[in-house]
Amino acid sequence: MKEYIKDPKEIERKSFEIITKELGDKTFEESMGKIVKRVIHTTADFEYADLLEFHPKAIETGKKVLKEGCKIYADTQMIIGGVNKNKLSQFGISIVNFVHDEDVVKKALETGVTRSIIALEKAALDKGIRVYAIGNAPTALLTLERLIEEKKVKPDLIIGVPVGFVSAAESKESIKDTGIPYIISRGRKGGSTVAAAIINAFLYMI
Amino acid sequence: MKEYIKDPKEIERKSFEIITKELGDKTFEESMGKIVKRVIHTTADFEYADLLEFHPKAIETGKKVLKEGCKIYADTQMIIGGVNKNKLSQFGISIVNFVHDEDVVKKALETGVTRSIIALEKAALDKGIRVYAIGNAPTALLTLERLIEEKKVKPDLIIGVPVGFVSAAESKESIKDTGIPYIISRGRKGGSTVAAAIINAFLYMI
Fold first, then answer.
1. If contacts are CB pairs under 8 Å, which of residues 45-84 in chain A contact chain B?
2. Does B22 fall in a domain?
3. DSSP string covering B66-108, please?
4. Residue B28, in any domain of the structure
5. What is the CATH number of the domain that holds A18?
6. Where do transmembrane segments lie in this chain (chains A, B) (predicted)?
7. Which value does ipTM take for this structure?
8. What is the number of structural domains in chain A?
């Protein structure tokens, strides 16, 4: 039988030790480092050390609103599947996604746009949502930007890490102009696992 | 208002066109190409063109068992969240994960090993499970390997794409020796999104 580490705490400790070592001279402010390392832990992709970009108020704001037990909109079920449920309930945080809602699916088919757009428009009506975590659809992030510009929604924090080849990089650059605190991954890379890792990093810090 | 493509079909078509173009000389057998491109589509990471490795019978076997409406064990809820539900029900495929089951959580705490190990041992008792999709935990893949060696389980296909810094690369190399058809991602990279993308690529082909 093969020998390997089976203790989850030891696996995590060793993983972060390796990540810290391989990051070398690349150091971060403590909280930022925890987020960056958790994303690398999730993706095994050191490029994120350069791709992640933080609004100066993003970390402070994220800690504050999560500690207050806010509501999060996630643009995929995968993000919801990936966040630590014990921590969510400990802080009274709820996380919702509307992409598979019947009314959303119907309207998306009728209008010929992505379900992500319609779902985001539905989310914007819920003023209890203070954090938007977009890990998949650039169209969701672009819709969020439009609704912010139209003053129809004003979140406290945007985790903008959609992945893709069509509008992904642009959507992340332009969300920076809204004035809302953000964490983004520049360029094409990102994903639901990245969004979940960022949320989890916050949950482990607060 | 910004102009961008809102039609999901057009976004997907254009994404795959860009991926195919940037892959350049790197071409694949048709079905394999669909899987590789869907993984790149999900991660925006072209390294997967080199990291994915296919057992010669993996694609044929995967298509066959999925068409027959098999049961899949996924090592995370994220994988389940990421697969196309309409396609699953169309083919009568079920997908399960036991990591959050009460008995699994309890036994993992008692024994001090990862929940992924205990959950995999539980899955191995269900002989209806014909495909194992491991996107997160190297310990799940190592447990699967051990149970295959002990002739306690004999799946038709293994999607072995756990991510990480501790045992991930080794777990994927050693699953290749079991004789079971596999699709793996060599090295540290992988993830739940990668596993879901591989399953979805199959679902769109069959």
1. 45, 76-78, 80-82
2. no
3. HHTT-EEEESSHHHHHHS-HHHHHHHT-EEE--TT-HHHHHHH
4. no
5. 3.40.50.10230
6. none
7. 0.95
8. 1
Q: Give me the sign of the Cα torsion angle B198, A189, A172, A71.
A: positive
B206 touches chain A (CB under 8 A): no
Query: Residue B77: its chain A contacts at CB < 8 A?
Result: 81-82
Per-residue pLDDT of chain B (206 residues; tens, 9 = 90+): 678 999 999 999 999 999 999 999 999 999 999 999 999 999 999 999 999 999 999 999 999 999 999 999 999 999 999 999 999 999 999 999 999 999 999 999 999 999 999 999 999 999 999 999 999 999 999 999 999 999 999 999 999 999 999 999 999 999 999 999 999 999 999 999 999 999 999 999 99
In a domain, A100, yes or no: yes
User: For residue B56, which amino acid is it?
Assistant: P
Give strand ranges (E) for A44-84. Answer: 52-54, 71-74
> Which chain A residues have a beta carbon less than 8 Å from that of B165?
14-15, 18-19, 41, 44
- Tell me the Cα Rg of chain B: 17
What would the pLDDT profile of A103-123 be if each residue is shown by its tens digit? 999 999 999 999 999 999 999
What residue numbers bound the domain in which A186 lies? 8-205
